[in-house]
Amino acid sequence: MPSEPTSISEGERSGGARAFWAQVADGGHQPLRRYALAFALALTVVIGVVDYRTGTQVSMLVFYFLPVAIGVAATGWKTGVSIAVLSVVTWLISDFAAGAHYISPLIPCWNAAIALGTYLVLVWLLASLLTLHRELEQRVRQRTAALRDEMAERERLEKAVLDIVERERLNIGRDLHDGLGQHLTGTALLAQAAARDLEERAAAEAPLVTKVVNLIEQGIEQTRRLSRGLLAVGIEKDGLVAACAELAATTQEQFRIACSFRVVGDPLLSDTGTATHLYCIVQEAVRNAARHAGAKRIEIRIAAGADGITCSVRDDGCGIPARPGNPGLGLRIMAHRAAIIGADFALSAPPDGGTQVRCHLPA
After folding, report:
1. Are 102 and 68 in contact (CB under 8 A)?
2. Residue 11's pLDDT band (cuts 50, 70, 90)
3. How many CA atoms lie within 13 A of 355 on its CB side?
4. Cα-to-chain-centroid distance, residue 350
5. DSSP H helical ranges for the chain
6. pTM
7. Which partner from 81, 172, 214, 275 sits 20 to 30 angstroms from 361, CA to CA?
């Protein structure tokens, strides 16, 4: 349609004109200021010629406001005063050249003084407004820079806090594996020796000691799984997949619910920090589904494609609680972790019920 290109070009010209005068008013672009000053002088001459052509019956004094205003915006109040004087002189010359006659020489002097006084008031008002505008712009720039620095510092501190948390997480995992796990293993060996000794003597306490040995071995297995879940993301190349698989197995055993894990593609991450954040998001979503949603089935899915890696957790629980504007702490932590690594976080309710947590990390 022919009208659309015309409107677009007019909008572009309007935006370009606004940008031009904004740069002139800010006073930071010397070539533009010179062009504006030359335009103001040329406009004064043009108005003077038109004033001469129209004769003495039509006053053109009001049109001289435009070059005066442009002069103030271009280089300041001094230039505005100079153009104001030039405009009054041009007006007097054009009137006399057009054949104006006065009964007294004081009349044109009085008219010129009134016109010049009006122009000077205009110069003062425009100069004051431009000064205020530039001061406000400077304050806005300073405040924006300070806010940007504050946000950068806040992000740095948040990352530092999360790094400390993850470091402590790894320390706990190592303590569980190397400390408590080894201690329980030693205890189990002693209990097994005691059980064999009691069985050889056919003691009545032998079955009870055997049960104690079984409980200790279950504790060793739980400790192993906990430590693996805490350490796998950071120490293995495919740590995210291994940790999520371990999480699914642990959840199924601990909560007695069906928890499946599925991998699509090859989701390998070289950055262990990013992998840890993704795992923590999945872990929090699974725990919420198991503990608070009353879910009977949970599905963990990790898909890797050309557009990035997507982690999703879906359950058949009670759905999203109706608390608009007041998400729980777990949801806020998951969203915050996603924001730190530049991922998109979404919480939705599938049509067939339940809840789906989705985190997409762009490639």
Report:
1. no
2. very low
3. 21
4. 28
5. 3-26, 30-54, 65-75, 77-97, 106-174, 181-200, 206-235, 239-255, 272-291, 329-340
6. 0.52
7. 172
